[in-house]
Amino acid sequence: MIERDNSYQGLMSRKNEIMKAAVGVDYSQFESGGLSFDYEAMMASTGYSLEDVIAIQRDLSIGRTPIIELKNLTALARHCAPPGLGARIFIKDEAANPSGSFKVRRAAISIHQAKEKGYKGAISATSGNYGAAVASCCARLGLKCIVVQECFDSKGLGQPEIIEKARKCEALGAEVVQLTVGPELFYIFLRLLEETGYFNASLYTTFGIAGIESLGWELAQQMREEYRLEPAMVVCTNAGGGNLTGTARGLRKAECRAQVVAASVNLKGLHMASDRQFNLKSFTTGHTGFGMPFTTWPDRSDVPRSAARPLRYMDQYVTINQGEVFYITEILAQLEGLEKGPAGNTSLAAAFSLAQALPQDQAIVVQETEYTGAGKHVNAQLSFARQNGIEILLGDPRQEVPGKNIILPSHPSLIQAQAADMDHLRLSLIKNALKAHPELERNAQGRVQLSPQDLEFLVAETNSNRAFVEKALESL
Amino acid sequence: MAKKGDWVKLHIKVLNPQERAPQVPEDTKEVPLEMWVKGTLCEDCQLGQSAKVITRTGRCVEGILCEVNPSYHHSFGDFIPELLHVGQQARAIVWGGACD
Question: Closest residue of A to B95, CA-based?
């Protein structure tokens, strides 16, 4: 038996070969040699058309979730909006999927692929709903499943939402490996992939993103068939970017021209890998700590080229505070009779605010809900925050300071999504792309000389134009 | 004493503080990376002693025995009085009636 060097450095040096074996995709075939790669060719390489994706998902009882018109929430928004404004608010009840979230759409295609290619099991590194989604599909298709979670701080205190997700994964037959805070989770993940030879059910492969295209496509069709409406706006909770990317691609395939808006919970000032700050967060996903870095540099993920590239599809990016999301979760239960998990309601809190700037005859669609339960609940999260020294107040959510307090709006009119500067995000992406390629040619003034292909790539990556990218390159 | 065949949880110290990844923030660098894994105990063992388990996927893992029949205790938390106001006010706005 060959003795492998399983030290941190030793294992990380084998990263590329482990990944290639565990995803079954040779990413180098899509590379141009510069900073660009052929994104569409990579997406097409799954071999699954949208029709195939839908068929695979139907076979696993995934999709065809209802779209619910939130009439009372709309009435409340109109009460806060200027006269004539306040679009109709709709929500796609993705919690009705097996495993309780939209994430099972992406797991379905990954696990189907794993089974087709003869893998005996699948591994996923996630503290979110994706773990249960992978576990659910593995249970259905007879594959073994390991979920690796970042779960505890160094005192052994676990975030209740993540503990609940561990429970759910185990309930669905998975092995759960729990870790303390730190990016070395990736090291454990690689070690497990190498040890077991299982499939890497990454959130960021082409399979994962192709799986969400059905959500956008279905949403557009349902709005047309059931409500005879073309949505003006679709709001997506944004973390790693896959939700938004897949939904937007699906909307485009349905020829729906709705504006696509990203929404993240504002966790400004809290470090994602900090042991001390780990349990000061009341949201473990859908927040700016993932949303901003993944939007401005998608290739930080666990595959060489992420299929989740949200800035390509994003018309607006808004942030919303923790107290505002908890408020809207409570209101959804109290006014609409729908009790759902708070993290999935990030986009709903944003939509409540955004609807107030749109005419009343327009439709704004929130494209997900998630299941709720012990741990994944407003009460569980707020009392956990209070136990950890976070003040819970009623007041103006603009005064909220992540890690210090959570401010529930004292009136619904105080819910106000904050728009991020899109050009600033675009500029950050360009900067990060150049930083990742120090080998690129520079002229006498130190400016990067891009090939026409690389220039077009950055235009697509930033959903901008040549003039914007050229100006950005000059300023850097 | 845990018996061979019991369902248990193991604790494993994966990386010492000095072995942590370079990009880790200072507070996280001061503590080890720890891991917990569950499985079926291979031999009789005392709590706090080194043990081997076979996990659900059939992996053999060694660590310190820390719990027998590991259970979940997460809940819906304590009552949050501030939430009372939220629901009452919204219902009053939409449906009419008293509101504080």
Answer: A72
Task: Tell me the residue type at A205.
Answer: T
Among candidates A207, A191, A240, which has minimal Cα distance to A15?
A191
Read off the pLDDT of each residue in A168-197 and give the average, rounded to a whole number.
Answer: 96
Going by C-beta distance under 8 Å and a sequence separation of 6 or more, which residues neighbour residue A404?
A: A390, A391
Number of helices (H) and strands (E) in chain A: give both, helices first: 18, 13
Are the C-beta atoms of A365 and A231 separated by less than 8 Å? Answer: yes
Average pLDDT over residues A182-189: 93
ipTM of the complex: 0.96
Closest of A258, A259, A220, A264 to residue A241, by C-alpha: A264
Burial of A405 (0-12, 13-18, 19+ CB in 10 A): middle
Judge contact between A184 and B26, C-beta under 8 A: no
Mean pLDDT, all residues of chain A: 95
Q: Tell me which chain A residue has its CA closest to the CA of residue B23.
A: A183
C-alpha span between A250 and A33 (Å, rounded)? 30
Task: State the angle between helix axes of A15-23 and A185-196 in degrees (0 to 180), rounded to the nearest 10.
Answer: 60
Which CATH number describes the domain made up of B1-71?
2.30.30.760
Helix ranges restricted to H, B1-100: 26-29, 82-95
Q: Which residue of B has its CA nearest to A167?
A: B72
The answer, yes or no, to whether residue A475 has pLDDT greater than 90, is no
Contacts of B37 in chain A (CB under 8 A): 175, 177-178
Tens of pLDDT, residue by residue over A417-459, are 999 999 999 999 999 999 999 888 888 887 888 999 999 999 9
A168 close to B (CB below 8 A): no
DSSP-derived secondary structure letter, A388: T
What domains lie within chain A, and their CATH numbers? 56-98+209-419 (3.40.50.1100), 433-475 (no CATH)
Q: What angle do CA A27, A206, A297 make, to 5 degrees?
A: 75
φ, ψ of residue A93 in degrees (nearest 5): -85, 75
* CB-CB under 8 Å, A163 with B77: no
Residue whose structure tokens are 């029709």: A51
Please classify residue A258 by burial: count the beta carbons closer than 10 Å to its beta carbon, then call 0-12 exposed, 13-18 middle and 19+ buried: buried
Q: Distance between CA atoms of A68 and A365, rounded to whole angstroms?
A: 9
**Is B87's CB within 8 Å of A378's CB?**
no
Note the helical H segments in A24-70.
39-44, 50-59
Give me the sheet containing A88-92, strands edge to edge.
A67-69, A88-92, A363-366, A233-237, A259-265, A316-320, A418-419
Nearest to A407 by CA among B10, B58, B85: B85
Q: Which two tokens stand for residue A109?
A: 């295609």
Instruction: Count the alpha carbons within 13 Å of A145 in the hemisphere toward its beta carbon.
Output: 32
**Token pair listed for A4:** 């492998």
Q: What is the pTM of this model?
A: 0.96
Backbone phi and psi for residue A122, each to the nearest 5 degrees, phi listed first: -140, 150
- Which pairing describes strands B50-54 and B33-41: parallel, antiparallel, or unpaired? antiparallel
Q: Do A188 and B58 make contact, defined as CB atoms within 8 angstroms?
A: no
The DSSP output letter for A117 is T
CB atoms within 10 A of CB A200: 27
Is residue A4 within 8 Å of A194, Cβ to Cβ?
Answer: yes
